[in-house]
Each structure stands twice: as structure tokens, then as C-alpha cells.
Design goal:
This protein is α/β, with parallel strands linked by helices and 255 residues long. It contains 9 helices and 15 strands. It is globular, with a radius of gyration of 18 Å. Pfam families: Metallophos (PF00149).
Length: 255
């Protein structure tokens, strides 16, 4: 059985349309929307609303880890819009989700990324789309577990969870053949982004599950340019399936 896996789609709907070609099943590990684009500052919801020059400044502040200044700057821009900020964000996110889910292959097994807004997915799912978070599914005779979202960070993205809540989802999944998550296990080489030059947050709970249950594979995304794309921990092959927005190419898993 051939399974195509993507993560970190970040608005790339045109490539998503063909990402399931030739596959028996399709898995998406989240981060569908594009709020800001660190490679092309003219792209994303923030730039659409406020222009590239303001996006340049906002991204520069965040890259320099001047998060309080970035939030103050952002609040000033949102205050200049008509009405509250959230309706503007929700409309923009809704437009992206409408396009992305229309392009999403089926059958598909989906979980959330840290920038996703889970409550908005239901309006856009199509027949054959199955969302799993802290749950399992049988695919090709193997048990796949899914853990969505991320952990708390200074970036304050929409679907970040406390460590205990995240660990509870990992525990609920239990022993599986393939563990699928948005964020990696907490291993430094898997967490370091060589372009952003920073460590992303990884999950100690996933790493503990690897040591305890030794799944055949652990699949994840989140780190766009990782120092290590794959690593073996005991019998478990840990694989970053790639930054789909940049590559437009799914990871192929044959089971």
C-alpha cells in the first residue's frame, strides 16, 4: 500500500491537488493556513491585510525574538481596521480553508498543526476526509496514531497546548505501528531549523512513547529546514516528511 504524507502546506493549494496522485491513502499532518511567509513577505494573511512593508517589519521583529514589540506593532495595525481584528482573520482563514479542503485528496487522514484553527475545519471537510487527534485508524493493515497541534511557545500560534494536555493525547493513542504528529519528538537534531537558526519545540511525550512502544515509524513536520530529516531511535524510524509549501512533493510511505 502506497501512502502519501504531507505537512506544513501553508496555503499551497495548487500542489495539494495532485499530492495524492498514485496513492492508496493520503495523510496531512497540519499547518494548512499561511498567516505570514518568512520566505516571501508579500504572501499570507498579514501581508494581504497590511501590505508587504508592514509584513517586513512584523517578521523582522519576530525573527529577532522581539515578541512584545511585534505584538504591539500588530495591535496598532489591527486597531486601524474596521471593527474587531478577529472577524477579519476568520474571513481570511475561511477563504484559505475553502480552497485547501477543495484541493485536498480523498481518502485522507488529517490532524491539526499548531497554526490551524480546529473549530473551523468542520465547515470545509469533504466526503472521505477523516480528522483524528489523539485517535487511531487502521490503514493498510497497520495501526496509525494521530496527535495534532503544538506546545506552548512565544509565538502564541492558535493550536498550542499545555504539556500535560498534549501528553494525554499521546497516551490516548497508545502503542501503534505508525505515530503521526505535527511536531517532532524532543530530539535536538530533529528540532533545529538551519535557516531560521533556532530550535523549535518538540514533544517529550512522543519521545517517551518511542522508547516505550517502539512504533515502526514516527512521521511529523513543523521544522521546515531541519538539521536532520530522519533518525532511528531503537527500531523506530523518525521522519520529517518535509515542508510541503516549499517542495510541493509528498513523502511516500510504502506499507
Amino acid at each position: 500500500m502506497r501512502i502519501h504524507v504531507v505537512s506544513d502546506v501553508h496555503g499551497r493549494a495548487e500542489a495539494l491537488r495532485s499530492a495524492g496522485d498514485g496513492a492508496d491513502a493520503f495523510i496531512c499532518l497540519g499547518d494548512l493556513i499561511l498567516f505570514v511567509d518568512y520566505s516571501d513577505h508579500a504572501q499570507g494573511i498579514f501581508a494581504d491585510l497590511f501590505g508587504q512593508e508592514n509584513a517586513d517589519r512584523f517578521i523582522a521583529l519576530r525573527t529577532q525574538k522581539r515578541f512584545d514589540e511585534a505584538r504591539d506593532f500588530s495591535r496598532t495595525l489591527w486597531a486601524g481596521l474596521d471593527g474587531e481584528a478577529w472577524p477579519h482573520i476568520e474571513r481570511a482563514v475561511g477563504r484559505q480553508y475553502a480552497e485547501l479542503f477543495a484541493a485536498m485528496p480523498a481518502p485522507a487522514y488529517l490532524t491539526y498543526g499548531n497554526v490551524d484553527i480546529p473549530r473551523m475545519w468542520g465547515d470545509h471537510l469533504r466526503e472521505g476526509h477523516r480528522v483524528l487527534d489523539g485517535e487511531t485508524a487502521e490503514i493498510g493493515g497497520l495501526t496509525f496514531g494521530f496527535v495534532g497541534g503544538g506546545l506552548r511557545t512565544e509565538y502564541r500560534t492558535p493550536y498550542e497546548l499545555d504539556d500535560d494536555a498534549y501528553a494525554a493525547k499521546v497516551e490516548a493513542v497508545g502503542a501503534v505501528d505508525v505515530l503521526c504528529s505535527h511536531i517532532p519528538p524532543a530530539v535536538p537534531d530533529l528540532l533545529y531549523d538551519t535557516v531560521a537558526r533556532r530550535f523549535e519545540r518538540g514533544s517529550e511525550a512522543i519521545l517517551d512513547a518511542i522508547h516505550r512502544t517502539q512504533p515502526k515509524y514516527v512521521l511529523f513536520g513543523h521544522v521546515h529546514q531541519p538539521l536532520a530529516r530522519r533518525m532511528r531511535i531503537g527500531r523506530t524510524e523518525c521522519v520529517n516528511v518535509g515542508h510541503f509549501r516549499a517542495s510541493g512533493v509528498p513523502y511516500v510511505l510504502s506499507v
